[in-house]
Amino acid sequence: MSLNAPLRLLNTQVPIRTLRNTRLFSTTPAVSKKKKDKSSRAAEESSAGSSAGAEDPLDFSSLTNGIQDAVSRLKEDISKLRPGGRLNPELIENVRVTVKSGSTGKESVKLNELAQVIPKGGRTITILLGEEDYAKPVTSALQAMPSLSLNPQQDPHNKLQLNVPIPPPTRESRDQVLKEAKAAMEKASTTVKNARANLNKKFKAAGNKKVVRPDDLHKALEQMEKITAKGQKEVKDAFEAAKKALERD
């Protein structure tokens, strides 16, 4: 019995040490593989980031977007004028009205926050007030509008209603509207010129840095001038359309 006990102890210890050695040996490649996978993944992400950050040196979007914004703003500004004796309701809605705020204070708000503007056809606009106290400040704000000569009248049957007759345009009012439309056109034209100048600067810088071929740069500059000329024509056409509408009345 005493001789067999050490043998049994030896038999149980040897496999334990072997298993430990085996476990340590088997984990070493796994750790190495994880490091390799992580490094490979980082390299792929870095490469993807570089590709995503690349920018086309001959991109025209800044110019085309600038022209589109300029023309849209011009048409919006012209629509708020009074071509042909017709009054755009938005012009009335956006008038600033000074009303009481609190016990002693005052604030300036848009008319459409105090009332509803309803075109009645012909040369009349109806304004439905939210409160009777708004009648006086709204009337004062409309009478102060330049070149329109508006004179709102409170409806005899409804104290919350203002009737606004639109007077026919005079030579003075036509000239004033034409002057404002021309100023809006010049502003839009300047916006187009600035967009073209910024893009030209960008293209020239790309050429100096040798990131584009000379032939490609030359073609891009020619295309830039064509896009700019088309944009300036759109600006001029919008102004001419407003001018003709004014002269028809």
TrEMBL record:
InterPro entries to which the protein is assigned, alphabetical: Ribosome_recyc_fac, Ribosome_recyc_fac_dom, RRF_sf
Annotated ranges, domain Ribosome recycling factor: 74-246
Any Gene Ontology biological process: translation
Keyword hit for Protein biosynthesis: yes
Pfam families listed in its UniProt record: RRF (PF01765)
Annotated segments matching region Disordered: 26-62
Keyword field contains RNA-binding: no
Low complexity biased stretches: 45-55
GO molecular function, one term: ribosomal large subunit binding
One Gene Ontology term, aspect cellular component: mitochondrion
Keywords associated with the record: Protein biosynthesis
Recorded superkingdom: Eukaryota
Physiological role: Necessary for protein synthesis in mitochondria. Functions as a ribosome recycling factor in mitochondria.
Family: Belongs to the RRF family.
Protein name per UniProt: Ribosome recycling factor domain-containing protein
Source organism: Uncinocarpus reesii (strain UAMH 1704)
Phylogenetic lineage: Eukaryota, Fungi, Dikarya, Ascomycota, Pezizomycotina
